Amino acid sequence: MNNKVKKIIPQLITLLVIIFVFGFFTYNAQMNMDNRGIEFGYGFLKQESSFDVQFSLIEYDGSHSYARAYLVGLLNTLLVSFIGIILSTIIGVIVGIARLSPNYLIKNTAAFYVEFFRNIPLLLQIFFWYFAALRALPLPQDAEAWFGSTYMTIKGYYVPLFVWNNLDVFLYSILAAIISILIIRSYAKKIQENEGKQLPVLYISLGLLILLPLLSFVIGGVNLEIKTPVLKQLSATGFIFEPALSLPPELIALVLALSLYTATFIAECVRAGIQGVSKGQKEAAASIGLTPRQVLKLVIMPQALRIIIPPTTNQYLNLTKNSSLAAAIAYPDLVLVFAGTALMQTGRAIEIVSITMLTYLSISLAISALMNWYNKKIAIKEK
Amino acid sequence: MFKYLKQLTSFVAMVAVLFAFSTEAMAKKSKTLKNTQKKGFVRCGVSQGLPGFSNADASGNWTGVDVDVCRAVAAAVLGDANKVKFTPLSAKERFTALTSGEIDILSRNTTWTLSRDADIGLTFVGVNFYDGQGFMVRKSSGITSTSQFKNGISACTNIGTTTELNMRDFFNSKGISYEPVAFEKADEVVAAYDNGRCDTYTTDKSGLAAQRTKMKNPDEHIVLPETISKEPLGPVVRQGDSVWEDIVRWSLNVMIEAEEYGITSANADSMKTSDNPAIKRLVGAEGELGAAFGLDNDWSLRIIKQVGNYGESYKRNIADTGILPDRGPNQLWTKGGILYVPPAR
How many domains are contained in chain A? Predict the structure, then answer.
């Protein structure tokens, strides 16, 4: 037998086994569904869902389709993951650096935080924030204003409602500002490489970011009306704030629990990354006259990031998947709305679970593709 | 002497039961029945804790009217009402657990609706509790009727139930905007409402009455008088095993009919000598009712003796526990209620 055949045969067998296993499960599911008179199909997605959802980023009520309900759940999952990733990164980086601080108190507080939060099951933490921490919040009628006119209550965090006119013009102005900043940055880089001059890029960028949106107010016809929350009575003891934008306590508890939990892992990644850069690098950088800030920005961080990014990607993926624990505290995410209520109302377990699984898979693959791209970008480039 | 006699009779009864099973069970082909007898217990899906319907105490003993349906089936097919394995299920898991074959009876305060019956491989066998959806509010709110609900009211409930749909229908028809807060488990709904997260808690009225007992201070809450939906609750089986379906249906019917004829767990044996043939059939002294689904003739007697009739079950689980002392529609048709079952003959 020659080498080529020897290589192919094990692969062929593996392939056959995989096909057989998948085939068997499909056949088995089909047989069982036939026996019980259950039909398979995705037609139900077009039907009217006839249930309402507490919190939605797009317009939705029970007269929309199940497909729309799916989208509501998906967007809510993405929202909580997005906020969670940003918050946990900020906390994680701060705590990770704090763990390396020479200050005894800072170092040990950070270490205590990490050990405490990462060793308690996430579901318990979610319950803690929702049922223990938020329960201590006042009822709307007893709430005191924070930052002028926002109210933190047991029914949610009420913030003023922003009513925009010509919001699109405002958004375009921000987009224009960002694009011009990018152009200026690349121009500044060229100048520095060619002539050695440094342009004050930061100030120019900030200026643009403020000036352009401001212009849109003055000449773009954009205007913003802020409606402050006012207490409204529903019954002798029932109150809410109206008009107001209400962030539901479910969202707040979930974001808090997810970020504080995931931040501990990110902090460890950050610490490992910084410690992974050899001491000589720092000393060498200092010896050629870089300031401590420049040392961190130009020498340590670029090298540390290479170590930090891959494990942090895992944490982002974990956070996104962990957000499905939302179902326990009534935050209407994909699992609660689609794999929960919609599954129950239609009884289409196989269809809905398969869609949900594929969705989580796609979200995870997208995040990891993005992070891999970033990782490649900052990796050592052989010249 | 008496002691030995008792042992002897129970031995004879056991042999008779076994004999009956080995001959007649073979004649009828029910896969579920055969599997149940082979395993030696009935696999029953119940709630995760709803006092009066299915609730486990500290030592893991289940009680409730839903639990009693499964016990009745166990008494009928296995001869012992205690041979039941209970699986607590959330509203979301329940139908999948049944259609996938993890349980054989779903007796979990489940509303009988057209789409559930026709669409998803289930068969409803009867109604063991007539219910309707209602609202609970805090007494201090001063609300005494749903007509006092105002825009912006937040309502706590469970996901995956007819409750969510009824709630939408109700608020839409009244033109009231509301915030639905839907949890996966009942305990969390109660905790959230109790904490003040929601202005009202909505589910089946029996459920409201039962959950009220779990609150920090039950006297601070009232159930509003309005009923916004029909919720006939009953046991469910998988589609495709009509013999098993019949066994579960008639185990429930026997309990209700036994009450109608005044047969109780205490007097069942003495009823064998009754003059009424309907009573004699129910206690196995006349006719061959059990043979129709491959059981012996004492199947119904065992149900009545070991579990009791419907009235006993209701009194034990729902009335005496203070959940709903008044039977309301769940009274016999002869006494002004709507419990009316086909005759066992």
Answer: 2
One domain, residues A250 and A179: no
Residues A111 and A211 in one domain: no
Q: Within this chain, do residues A192 and A330 fall inside the same structural domain, yes or no?
A: no
Between chain A and chain B, the number of residue pairs with CB atoms below 8 A apart is 130
Of A8-17, A20-29, A136-145, the least confident: A136-145
Query: B138 and A237 in contact by Cβ < 8 A?
Result: yes
Subunit contact A328:B185, Cβ cutoff 8 A = yes
Place of tokens 């929350």: A229
Reported confidence tier of residue B195, pLDDT bands at 50, 70, 90? confident
CA–CA distance, B171 with B178 (Å, rounded to integer): 7
Name the strand (E) or helix (H) holding A171.
helix A167-195
In a domain, A185, yes or no: yes
**Which structural domain, as residue segments, surrounds residue A257?**
66-160+228-378
pTM of the predicted protein model: 0.79
Residues A256 and A309 in one domain: yes
Rounded to the nearest angstrom, the minimum Cα separation between A358 and chain B is: 20
Contact B239 A249 (CB under 8 A): no
Q: In this predicted structure, what is the pLDDT of residue B119?
A: 72
Same-domain status, A156 and A170: no
Q: Is A333 found in the same domain as A309?
A: yes
Which of A54, A242, A330 is nearest residue B152 as measured by Cβ atoms? Answer: A242
Q: Report which of residues B202 and A204 the model is more confident about.
A: B202
A51 Cβ under 8 Å from any chain B Cβ: yes
Looking up residue A337, the CATH number of its domain turns out to be 1.10.3720.10
In chain A, how long is the greatest CA-to-CA distance?
A: 89
Q: Does residue A8 lie in a domain region?
A: no
Residue-averaged pLDDT of chain A = 88
Inspect the interface and report whether the beta carbons of A336 and B196 lie closer than 8 Å: no
CA distance A47 to chain B (A): 13
Task: Report the C-alpha gap between A301 and A125 in whole angstroms.
Answer: 32
CATH code for the domain defined by B2-130+233-335: 3.40.190.10
Kindly determine whether residue B180 and residue A54, on different chains, have CB atoms separated by under 8 Å.
yes
| Residues 6 or more apart in contact with residue B93 via CB below 8 angstroms | none
Average pLDDT (B49-63) is: 91
Q: Is residue B12 pLDDT above 50, yes or no?
A: yes
CATH architecture of B133-229: 3-Layer(aba) Sandwich (3.40)
Q: At what angle do helices B242-260 and B299-306 cross, to 10 degrees?
A: 60
- Asked if the bond preceding A243 is cis, omega within 30° of 0, the reply is yes
Contact residues, chain B, for A232 at CB < 8 Å: 152
pLDDT at B302 > cutoff 80:
yes
CATH fold match for the domains B2-130+233-335 and B133-229: yes
What is the predicted ipTM? 0.77
- Residues with Cβ within 8 Å of B72's Cβ and at least 6 positions away in sequence, in order, are B81, B251, B252, B254, B255, B303, B307
Domain ranges of chain B: 2-130+233-335, 133-229
Q: Which of A33, A36, A51 sits opposite B164 (nearest CB)?
A: A51
- Among the partner-chain residues A238, A330, A349, the one whose CB lies closest to the CB of B199 is A238
Residue A312 contacts residue B163 (beta carbons within 8 Å): no
